């Protein structure tokens, strides 16, 4: 299994005031970068020859590379260290990537390591001035909760795209177990060739749903992303009608994440 890691200077943590400045600078660059992509980069890419698929692929590549640069900047500036286990198994045709959602940058790190991924994103981000350009150019799917969204996501998988879904729908509330909605399981059963769970842990916790970005932890945080074993959706499809199958797959995923996250907590203790 391939291990991508950036833990240099792991015994050294920059002073709190520097990490606060570096975090502010990181998100400022992220916001400005999103606007520049929308008003400069994507219009130029649209002038290049090719069909809609070629334009979308270019846009997703640019987004992925930009997010990878952002993660590297946060590492180089002393905000975080990171570790990705099994990155080589991400990005396969028809693969649905199911991940928990402990922090603000989860989708950024995942997309950074999947060059041509689709993603189900919150509806509110479609009108965000910093994010709407990359989201629309990359053809991401709005998490509206409608049947049209389920159909669009399933169709993306059936056409061979890789799809990232956070079944919680929002960041995990600190101190509480993740709560998975069944929509992700229903999408997987309708269109995925393979389901791949990805466990994300952030130590110490930061950028959570209950914390503003400037609530800096006592030391720079470590972001760990672990790609789990593949799950065959056909195994669950054979267990009964669609509602029963999606409930059982959702329960299986929830139990998997609870077990892995509990092991992470014991390791960090």
Automatic annotation (TrEMBL):
Domain of life where this protein originates: Bacteria
Protein name: Phospholipid/glycerol acyltransferase domain-containing protein
GO biological process: phosphatidic acid biosynthetic process
Keywords of this entry: Acyltransferase, Membrane, Transferase, Transmembrane, Transmembrane helix
Entry GO MF terms: 1-acylglycerol-3-phosphate O-acyltransferase activity
One Pfam family here: Acyltransferase
PANTHER family assigned to the protein according to its UniProt record, in alphabetical order: 1-ACYL-SN-GLYCEROL-3-PHOSPHATE ACYLTRANSFERASE, PHOSPHOLIPID_GLYCEROL ACYLTRANSFERASE DOMAIN-CONTAINING PROTEIN
């Amino acid at each position: 299994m391939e291990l991508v890691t950036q833990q240099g200077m792991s015994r050294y943590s920059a002073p709190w005031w520097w990490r606060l400045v570096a975090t502010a600078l990181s998100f400022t660059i992220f916001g400005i970068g999103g606007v520049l992509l929308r008003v400069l980069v994507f219009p130029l890419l649209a002038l290049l020859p090719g069909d809609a698929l070629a334009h979308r692929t270019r846009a997703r590549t640019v987004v992925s590379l930009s997010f990878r640069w952002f993660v590297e900047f946060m590492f180089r500036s002393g905000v975080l260290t990171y570790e990705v286990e099994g990155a080589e198994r991400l990005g396969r045709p028809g693969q649905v990537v199911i991940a928990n959602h402990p922090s603000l940058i989860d989708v950024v790190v995942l997309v950074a390591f999947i060059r041509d991924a689709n993603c189900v994103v919150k509806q509110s981000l479609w009108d965000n001035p910093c994010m709407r350009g990359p989201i629309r150019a990359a053809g991401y799917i709005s998490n509206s909760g409608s049947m049209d969204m389920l159909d669009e996501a399933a169709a993306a998988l059936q056409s061979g795209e890789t799809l990232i879904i956070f079944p919680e729908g929002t960041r995990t509330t600190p101190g509480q177990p993740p709560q998975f909605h069944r929509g992700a399981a229903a999408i997987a059963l309708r269109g995925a060739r393979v389901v791949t769970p990805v466990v994300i842990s952030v130590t110490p916790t930061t950028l959570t749903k209950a914390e503003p970005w400037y609530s800096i932890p006592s030391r720079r945080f470590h972001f760990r992303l672990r790609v789990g074993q593949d799950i065959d959706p056909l195994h669950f499809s054979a267990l009964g009608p669609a509602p029963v199958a999606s409930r059982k797959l959702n329960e299986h995923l929830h139990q998997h994440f609870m077990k892995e996250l509990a092991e992470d907590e014991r390791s960090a203790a």
